[in-house]
Design goal:
heterodimer; A: alpha/beta; Rossmann fold; 8 helices; B: alpha/beta; nine-stranded mixed β-sheet; about 20% helix
Chain lengths: ~260, ~400
C-alpha cells in the first residue's frame, strides 16, 4: 500500500453558526510528524473534531481527502475504518463496556463478519501493547474511561491507537494536564509507532511534548488559519519567544481569549 | 373482585392446606379474613385491578429447582420445610409483610403455594453462589414464596431466576422474604425473564440485623406487566443495604417498581441505583423512598435513577422521595430520563464501530454495569447478552 496521505484544502468549520476555522491547508504523509501550535481559541481542536465528524461542528467549505478519498462525505465510523484516528482531548466514558470488548469490537468492525480477530491472539496483542505503554493489566477489564484519571484517559487513547493502527493519527492536546513523566510516556508510546505507514498530526499549546517526539513540520495556527510553517526550529523559537512577536509581525491584533 | 365470580371460602383454603400444620392454616385463614378489609395499593399509572394475579382463587406451586447445596446450608422446597416443621418458617413466614400490608399481600399469604426455604447456618461463609430457578408454565396462577434466612455472621450469594418457555401466559402472585442476622451478608440476585405474556406481582421484604449487609441485584427484562415493591428494613445499627436495579422494557411492557429503604438503626446506610431502558411503547413507573425514622442517627440514604429512552412512544414516570424524621442524617436523590448520549455514540463511531453497534453496546453496557457484583461471570454475561439482544435500533 502507498504511503498514507491526508490533504486538507481550504477547510472552513463553524460552531453554532460562527466560523472558527477559516480556510486551512495542510498535507500530512506517512512518516511525517506535524505539530500544530498556537494560542487558545485559534481553531486547532475545532479542525481536528471536524475532520473526525463531531456532530457539533459544521463543515462550511473546503475539502479533506485521505488516500484520495473524500473523508468529509463519509460517516464517522467510515472515516475511522478508512484509517483516520483522533486521540480526543476529552474522551467519553462508557459505562458497562470493557476496554477489551470495545477494542475487539472496533477491530472486528474493520474485518469481514466471518473473520473476527481470534480472541486469544487479541488478548495477547493487547497485553503486549499495555505493557509497552506501562498500562496496568486491569485496564482491559475496566469500563471505557470510567473513573480514569486524566493521565489514564490519555494513555488509553494512545493504547487504542496502537491497537487500531490508523494511517493518519490526529492527537488533540494529548499532553494537556499531564505531568512531565506522563508526557514522556505518552510521547514514547507514539514514537514507537512511527513508520512510513503512519502520519501524525499533533495539536498542542506547548512545545514540551516535542522534546520527546521530533516533529518533521511545525505550523502555527491563528484566527482559524495556518499563519506560518517551518521545521522543528519554529517550535523552539515559539518556546523561547512566545506568540506575540509573530502576532505583531503578521499584524494580528485581535485579542485571543476563547477556547475553541 | 375482578377476574372471578367465585368467592374464595375458608373451606376451600382448609381443603387446600389439609396436610399443613394448624399454625399455618390459622395464618392463612387470618389473611383471607383481611383480604376484603385491606386496601388495594392504588396506582394511577398502573391500573392492575383486572390483572390475572388479582384473581380471588387458589394458586399452584411452580417448579423450583435448586443448584448444589453445600454444608451448613438448607435449600429446600418450602412445602418440605413446612412439613418437616422448620421453626424458622413458623417464626418468619409472612412476618415482614405485617407492616403496611395490603390486599394483595394478604391474598398471597392466604393462597401461597410452593416456593423455597433457604437457611445458611451461623458463621457459614459460602464460596460458591446458591442458585434457584422458578419455572412457569402457561395457563396457571402461581403463588410461590421464597424465605431466606441467614443466621448471625453467615455470608452467601443467592441467584434466583424467574423464567418460562416462550409464549407462556401465566400469572404470578409471589413474595420474597429475607431475614439477615447480625453481621450476616447476602448478595441476592434476581433475574426476571418470564415470557412476554406473563403478568407478575412480586413484592420483596428484607430485615437486617446489626452490621448486616444486603445487596439486591435485580434485573427485569420479561413480563407483559411486572409489579414489584421492595422494602428493606435496616433495623440493626450499622446495617447496610443497596439496590442495584436494572430494567429493560420494550413493545408494550409495563413495569411498576417501588424501592423503599426503612432506616431504623443508627448509622445505617442505603443506596438505590436504578437504571432503565425503554423502547417501543414500553412504560415504567418507578418510585423510590428513603425513609429515615426518628432515632436513626447518622443514617445515610441515597438514590440515583436514570432511564434511557430509545423511542418517542416510551414513557417513564420517576418519583423519588425522601421521608426524614431525624436531624443527623445525610440523604438525597437524583432522577433523570433522556436519550442515548450522542457524544458517547460519536466516540465509539470514531473508533470505527457502526452507529447501530455503538448504540447497542452503550445501551447494554449502561444496564450491565449494575451486574458487577454477581459472583458468576456466566450469569453476568448471560444477562448482558440478553440486554444486548433486546436493543431494537
Amino acid at each position: 500500500m502507498a504511503r498514507p496521505e491526508l490533504i486538507i484544502q481550504g477547510l472552513r468549520v463553524g460552531v453554532e453558526g460562527r466560523e472558527i476555522v477559516k480556510g486551512l491547508d495542510l498535507t500530512v504523509r506517512g512518516g511525517e510528524v506535524h505539530a500544530i501550535m498556537g494560542p487558545n481559541g485559534t481553531g486547532k481542536s475545532t479542525m481536528a473534531s471536524a475532520l473526525m465528524g463531531h456532530p457539533s461542528y459544521e463543515v462550511l467549505g473546503g475539502t479533506a481527502t485521505l488516500d484520495g478519498q473524500n473523508i468529509l462525505g463519509m460517516a464517522v465510523d467510515e472515516r475511522a475504518r478508512a484509517g483516520l484516528f483522533l486521540a480526543m482531548q476529552y474522551p467519553a466514558e462508557i459505562s458497562g463496556v470493557s476496554n477489551a470488548n470495545f477494542l475487539r469490537t472496533a477491530l472486528n468492525a474493520r474485518r469481514a463478519e466471518n473473520d473476527p480477530v481470534p480472541v486469544m491472539q487479541f488478548h495477547r496483542d493487547l497485553k503486549a501493547k499495555m505493557e509497552s505503554l506501562q498500562i496496568d493489566q486491569s485496564f482491559a477489564e475496566r469500563y471505557v474511561n470510567e473513573g480514569f484519571s486524566g493521565g489514564e484517559k490519555k494513555r488509553n487513547e494512545i493504547l487504542q491507537m496502537a491497537v487500531l493502527r490508523p494511517r493518519i493519527a490526529v492527537l488533540d492536546e494529548i499532553d494537556s494536564g499531564l505531568d512531565i513523566d506522563a508526557v514522556k510516556l505518552v510521547a514514547s508510546g507514539v514514537s514507537q509507532m512511527l513508520s512510513e505507514d503512519l502520519g501524525v498530526l499533533i495539536i498542542t499549546h506547548y512545545q514540551r511534548i516535542l522534546n520527546y517526539i521530533n516533529p518533521t513540520n511545525v505550523h502555527v495556527m491563528m484566527q482559524g488559519r495556518i499563519v506560518r510553517s517551518g521545521g522543528p526550529e519554529l517550535a523552539m523559537e515559539l518556546e523561547a519567544r512566545g506568540y506575540e512577536w509573530l502576532r505583531q509581525e503578521l499584524g494580528i491584533d485581535e485579542p485571543i481569549t476563547e477556547e475553541a | 373482585m375482578a377476574g372471578t365470580l367465585v368467592e374464595l371460602t375458608p373451606e376451600q383454603i382448609a381443603a387446600f392446606a389439609a396436610d399443613e400444620p394448624s399454625w399455618l392454616l390459622e395464618r392463612r385463614l387470618g389473611a383471607l379474613g383481611r383480604v376484603s378489609e385491606l386496601p388495594l395499593r392504588q396506582s394511577k399509572q398502573t391500573p392492575f385491578e383486572t390483572a390475572p394475579f388479582m384473581a380471588l382463587d387458589l394458586a399452584q406451586a411452580p417448579s423450583v429447582t435448586a443448584g448444589a447445596v453445600p454444608a451448613g446450608v438448607e435449600l429446600v422446597d418450602l412445602r418440605t420445610a413446612i412439613q418437616e416443621g422448620r421453626l424458622e418458617v413458623q417464626q418468619h413466614l409472612g412476618r415482614l409483610f405485617t407492616e403496611g400490608e395490603d390486599r394483595l399481600h394478604a391474598l398471597h399469604l392466604a393462597t401461597f403455594a410452593g416456593g423455597a426455604f433457604c437457611r445458611v447456618e451461623r458463621g457459614v461463609e459460602l464460596q460458591e453462589p446458591l442458585q434457584l430457578t422458578v419455572e412457569l408454565e402457561s395457563g396457571a396462577l402461581y403463588a410461590p414464596h421464597l424465605l431466606v434466612v441467614l443466621e448471625e455472621g453467615a455470608r452467601a450469594d443467592l441467584i434466583v431466576e424467574l423464567r418460562g418457555e416462550a409464549g407462556t401466559e401465566a400469572a404470578v402472585r409471589g413474595a420474597v422474604e429475607i431475614v439477615l442476622g447480625d453481621n450476616a451478608a447476602l448478595n441476592y440476585t434476581e433475574f426476571q425473564r418470564v415470557p412476554g405474556r406473563t403478568q407478575t406481582y412480586w413484592p420483596r421484604r428484607a430485615e437486617l440485623g446489626r452490621d448486616a449487609k444486603l445487596h439486591w441485584i435485580l434485573a427485569d427484562v420479561g413480563a407483559r406487566l411486572a409489579v414489584a415493591d421492595t422494602r428493606t428494613y435496616l433495623r440493626g445499627n450499622g446495617a447496610e443495604a443497596r439496590v442495584l436495579a436494572s430494567f429493560f422494557g420494550g413493545r408494550r411492557q409495563h413495569f411498576d417498581f417501588n424501592h423503599v429503604m426503612v432506616h431504623e438503626g443508627q448509622h445505617t446506610t442505603s443506596d438505590i441505583e436504578a437504571r432503565g431502558v425503554l423502547q417501543g411503547r414500553a412504560r415504567a413507573v418507578y418510585n423510590a423512598n428513603s425513609l429515615i425514622r426518628k432515632q436513626a442517627k447518622g443514617a445515610s440514604g441515597w438514590q440515583h435513577e436514570h432511564t434511557l429512552m430509545l423511542s418517542e412512544e416510551a414513557r417513564a414516570d420517576l418519583i423519588p422521595e425522601l421521608e426524614i424524621s431525624e436531624w443527623e442524617v445525610s440523604a438525597g436523590h437524583a432522577a433523570s430520563a433522556g436519550p442515548v448520549d450522542p457524544i458517547q455514540v460519536h466516540y465509539m463511531e470514531s473508533r470505527g464501530i457502526s452507529p447501530v453497534e455503538s448504540r447497542r453496546l452503550i445501551v447494554a453496557g449502561f444496564l450491565a454495569s449494575l451486574l458487577q457484583d454477581i459472583p458468576l461471570a456466566s450469569v453476568r454475561e448471560r444477562i448482558a447478552d440478553i440486554f444486548q439482544e433486546k436493543v431494537e435500533l
